[in-house]
Amino acid sequence: MVLVHIVLFKFRADIGDEIKQEFLSQIKTLKSLPCVKSQKLVVGGPSITSSIEKSKGFHYALMSYHEDQAALAEYQASSEHARVTGTYFIPYKEDLIRFDFETDQVDEALLGF
Questions:
Q1: Looking at residue 74, which CATH number applies to its domain?
Q2: 0.85 cut: is pTM over it?
Q3: Cα–Cα distance for residue pair 2/111, rounded to 1 Å
Q4: pLDDT tens, 57-93?
Q5: Which part of the chain is the Stress-response A/B barrel domain (predicted)?
Q6: Exposed site from 53, 66, 71, 88, fewest CB < 10 Å?
């Protein structure tokens, strides 16, 4: 089983591109945490969904993979995660959506595990 962690980030309207770019740069460093399975963590955006209204105004998405719920909890509790989110997102946040799920073991190969 692999646990998939998805987060959608929405910045306030008054937040400029410089802050958003620094956020992207910093959040990508979390892939080096040992609790991220095979260092697979992807961040992307802005949304290219058509029509853009379907994205509900969210700017960026993160998807990371973890061995199990304990590894995800370790990721969430890490000082690096707290530093990055606390410095580069929380002060500028409008909204956030988090969705975590466990994959079936037969689907792990589709994820490259």
A1: 3.30.70.100
A2: yes
A3: 9
A4: 999 999 999 999 999 999 999 999 999 999 999 999 9
A5: 3-101
A6: 53
